[in-house]
Amino acid sequence: MRKSFKPRLCKEILFLCMLLQAISGYGQQKLVVSGTVSDKLAPLEGVSVLVQGTRQGTKTDAKGQYQLETTQGARLNFKLIGYRDTTIIAQNGTINVQLTESAQTLNEVVISYGTQQRKEVTGAISQIEATELKDVPVGQFSQKLQGRIPGVQISQTTGRPGQGMAVRIRGSASMNAGNTPLYVVDGQPITGDISNINPDEIESFSVLKDASATSLYGSRAANGVVLVTTKKGKGEGINVNFSSYGGVQYVPQRGRPDVMNAREFAQWQKNYYEDKIRYEDWVNPATGLAEIPDDYKNPEQYGAGTDWYDILLRDGAPIQNYSLSLTANTEKFSSAVTAGYFNQQGVVLNTGYQRYSFRANNEFRPNDKLTLGFNIAPTLQLDHNTLSNTDGQRQVIDGSFITSPISPAINPDGSLPITTNTFGMFPNPNWYRVLKEKLDNYRRTRILGNVYGEFKILEGLKFKTRADFDLGAQTQQLYVSSTSGGGLFVAPPQRATGQYNTETYYSWLNENVFSYNKSVGDHIFDLLAGYTTQKYRQENSAIDKTDFPNDQIPWLDAGATVTGAGSNTAAWSLESLIGRLNYSFKGRYLLSAAMRRDGSSRFGSDRRWGSFPSVSVGWVASDENFLKESEKISFLKLRASYGLVGNNNIGNYRSIAMMSPTNYVIGGSLAQGLSINSLGNPALGWETTKQLDIGFELGLFDDRISLVYDYYNKKTDGMLYPVELPRASGFSSVWTNIGTFKFWGHEIGISSKNLTGEFVWNTDFNITFNRNKVLKLGTNDTPIGGYNDQGDFNRTAVGHPIGQFYGYVYDGVYMTQEEFDTQPKHSSSAIGTVRMKDLNGDNVIDNNDRTFIGDPNPDFIFGLTNNFRYKDWDLSFLIAGSVGGQTMNATYENTENLDAVFNMRKEMLNVWRSPENPGNGEVPRTLAGTTALFRFTNSRWVYSSTYVSLRNVTLGRNFTIENNKYLKNIRAYLSIQEALMLTKYPGLNPEVSARAEDPLRLGIDQTAYPVPRTFTFGINVGF
Predict the structure, then answer these.
(1) DSSP string, 430-442
(2) Which CATH class is domain 2-98?
(3) How far apart are CA 890 and CA 992, in angstroms?
(4) Are 195 and 381 in contact (CB under 8 A)?
(5) Do domains 108-232 and 314-402+410-436+447-808+853-890+937-1022 have the same CATH topology?
(6) pTM, entire model
(7) Is residue 958 a contact partner of residue 932, using CB atoms and an 8 Å limit?
(8) What is a single Pfam family found in this protein's UniProt entry (predicted)?
(9) Is domain 108-232 given the CATH code 3.40.50.300 in the classification?
(10) How far apart are CA 200 and CA 765, in angstroms?
């Protein structure tokens, strides 16, 4: 009996406890709680819903729905990786919960060659999930990022379909070796254009800004790095999503060219010839009499005439996009397949762009040690009349500004005139006909792909090898008909010309990387070492023909005469060693050190190798005891970094002398040989950028408010630039390392969760201040640019920012004889002519009086995003802006030409004609021999480029589908892109830049393809 006493006593005590628990529970009210869990965009699958203090729980289904039996007053915990844990009190009825992403404890951040917990990142990295941007209906992924990332300036310099985005991270890092960041897609560095990438394929973007974050990309990281991660198979089972949007595009009325209509133009011309007769004894060559030309004798006969800009536009140009994606995930296999079609017809007649895309990302996990992957992404792009002959000086849009409004674009019988000439004007083609007959088609095919394998050698030790490939082919078919050829100053008819160009290229890359992760107590070590090699090769060919029998057959076999033919090839290679150490002590003391050593074929034999080290430190101060219990500060991390990165983007063979075929006369006979056509520089070396970054990340009030701040200072040495040589050398220039300049600035990003609950309001704001200064330019600090009175708008000089505007300072008109007699004068000056400021005080106005007249670099840029949600409805809008800086409206070089050869701005109606009729005091007289100075680059053309733009407004609704085994959810939305622009700049686009990638020539408006306002309706369906 004694042996069984203890077991029996234990059983009785256990039974008594269970009875008491049952009695206690009987008094509590049982209830069933149900609802939907979502984030700010859509329902969330796989959220754990647990009753606190118990093992009772469930997970949300594919529609984000859950159901759980519990008791009144129980605490329910909602958990999902990447979101803040949320706790609510159970009560009767439906409980819908919205989870918010944790600003600092979000899961993993994509970094160079891997991922890292956000808390442990010591570099300046901004990451955006593609789900935040899915309702921004644009064709290029860089457009989606506009105004959303501190330190990143994304400008839409032209509205050409499929093009027009200029991206700069922390300003420029080079004057002449490119400033486009390096794009890395799923670990594969991309060479050349990135417009082939379908935005719907993308899962996240990581923008690496400081040297610590970018140094593992070494010689290509000076301009920053954008890591693009495409969709992978995840979750459970098979998920299918379809998305589509369609809309129409219009050119806004604001900023259209304010040029004269037909009646105004005829009146101006009449006044012009009256003054020529009065002051110059002009005689009409058609009649031999001093009389007004017939075209302009009676201005009242004309109405508005031809609006050449408007007639070249297409209102309601359609845009459409379709995307179908499938993801699957099991223990052994995961896959994500996305197929897309994008079609954007241009708002300029007979222009358009199409893209067909496909991507398949597959990963196999045969066992716990081995992972294999294969990814492939073919694309086809079709450009119709979008890559040339629309933007820029003396192209189609520029021609529409200056063509005579008296001339018709379409004859009364519907036929199209060939030319548009009226008396005294430079000859012009019919630009409407040029566009209608234009044929300039590009067909671009590209295949990106890679295979990889990762093997776990030991606990914490992995080896990964991968092989990437990039294959491309491009063809261009160009045909200029006899009735549309010529251009400005050379009106048709001309001989028809045809051209066919081809380009093929391939690039392969192989990487082999060991990684090792080890924890020893509170110490965590993460090591990486590897070797990578890459080769790129391209081939080009072209043939030109003319003497076509007619304009009906645009193919080259119809042309009788070959006017040009050629082919060439080029290649480069890169070989690299990489290494990195990440160290963490107690999760709050952080250290990262990295090194990349690159060897590039582009540099001289003695300068091919460069080393690019970096180091960064971080301190998670909020984990210290003195801050752990703070009710205000929920997260605080201080960090700093310093490192060196490079730039080898100078083209191929700059370091060696190049030869080309030439003919020699030997013994009276012509013999073919070779001659040197460019001078090499065997000492040509790396352009390097040193960068310091100091920053902090702060979370307040349980991360209701998050703040990120960075100060950066970067200095570029050994600037790569082609230096002009004396003519006696026989060469025009040679590439060398000649200069030094620095950039510095501040970046601030603020996120706030203003309201939570049934009505949700979140705000994101960022602002960036950038400055730059040139420190050295070669041996003699000789300025770059600004030497010519016309067409040479920018100058870069020591002690100044890069690419400032340079010219005369406009000072009005000599209104009276007294003003003319007492003021400094140009050699062409007369009463009523333009007056420029005499800056050097010698009482003579000449090119020694030119100076810096503007700066295209803004004082700061900013972006503001607001997201609102109420039940199933949501509203978001993005405001972006730029403050300070100027744009030079170089179209004035033609539209303020007072020689009666172009149409002009309406203000030119106010010309000075006499002391009794002096006009508005801004526009000089038209006296022959005096008008050139008014066309020289001057401050009159410079305007503030400050703007505030409502980039995007989207209103959407989510529909949850009940009791349907096929449909999971549907989302519909309406969106306006480029909804509103507030600016004092008189042109259409204050972001315009004729040479957007060249920091030496920023901010020049020589006309550009208009950026449209787009209205779209979209739908997303989950299956």
Answers:
(1) -HHHHHHH-EEEE
(2) mainly beta
(3) 11
(4) yes
(5) no
(6) 0.86
(7) no
(8) Plug
(9) no
(10) 25
